[in-house]
Amino acid sequence: MEGGSDSSIQVLRESTADKENVSFEPPAKKFKVTEVHSDCKHKLEDRLSGILCCAVCLDLPKTCYQCTNGHLMCAGCFNHLLADARIKDETATCPNCRCEINRCVCIRNLAVEKAVSELPSDCAFCNSKLPRYQLEYHQKELCQERPCSCRYSRIGCHWEGPYHEVAEHESNCAHPKKSGEEIMSALEAIDAQRQEEHKLYSDIFSLLSFEKITFNDLQLKPFRTDDFITRLYYETTRFTAFNQQWVIRAKINSDHKNPTHTINRSLSYQLVAKTKLTAPMVMHFLALSGPFGGIKMKSKVYNFEFTEEASETEYLDLPIDSAECNKLLASKTINFRLVMFQVTK
């Protein structure tokens, strides 16, 4: 009996030892848990990118607006939606929930902007992953693969390549060893560009020496025609300059029959004399952004001789790009400054 009990105790111990060995977690399972954790982390970034993206272009917004229901739009798409609605004479709506959007009800979401700035993004040149707030500086100053041109491009060298190859190229570039006659064509092109810029500034400074100068800060307000196909126009209230009454009119995409069919928007304007002129008046004028404009506008001087028969100019281009045009159309009114110079004969 004692021998049988000893054998049963030994079997019990062996079975207990086997159970204890089974309860241990194998190393392979630990590695699997680690891999799942890293996958979740990677998917979290992708999920955040999908949640925080613009509802229109599906890109992550640098400047972010939201509708009353919280749907996000980048600044460019937000302005484009408002501009489209202005041209079509419709109410601008959110592309997700169709609630009304405008500059009064939509606000910026700074939390989303800060979150997006922390998300990683690939460098366009070296594919390095960096937080978005560091990406612009990296691509301009630090990236060794960023595109650069030769320092002798001003004298005709057309080489372009990555930054880390610039030093080697410049040490072997043949353009510094060329004669003055050989680089004259490149210098003439540079001189032509400089002369065009210099002419603009010299014209403006010469106009500032005129005896009769005035400027007015104006507002262009939208209105529509009563034609079968209504068109959007802008017009200012009457203003006084040189003892005459004037207005400014503007229209969108004067070279397109239907401005809604193109994403490239442009504004053109004309100066109109509202009082009857008894004698010809030669006017030089230019439109500027002014203190309340808030847009990037280049300077361009126009001139016209107003007579009793010719009381309005042709429609002239307002020197702004398409993005700035959308920004103007998204506003209720367009603010700008008109500077006028009268040429006395």
TrEMBL record:
Keyword Ribosomal protein tagged: no
Lineage of the organism: Eukaryota, Metazoa, Spiralia, Lophotrochozoa, Mollusca
Zinc finger (TRAF-type): 119-157
InterPro entries noted in UniProt: ZFTRAF1, Znf_RING, Znf_RING/FYVE/PHD, Znf_TRAF
One annotated GO molecular function: zinc ion binding
Domain spans labelled TRAF-type: 119-157
Ranges of residues in domain RING-type: 54-98
Protein keywords: Metal-binding, Zinc, Zinc-finger
One GO CC term on file: nucleus
SUPFAM superfamilies, per the entry: RING/U-box, TRAF domain-like
PROSITE patterns: ZF_RING_2, ZF_TRAF
Protein family per UniProt: Belongs to the ZFTRAF1 family.
Name this polypeptide is given: Zinc finger TRAF-type-containing protein 1-B-like
This protein's encoding gene: LOC106074938
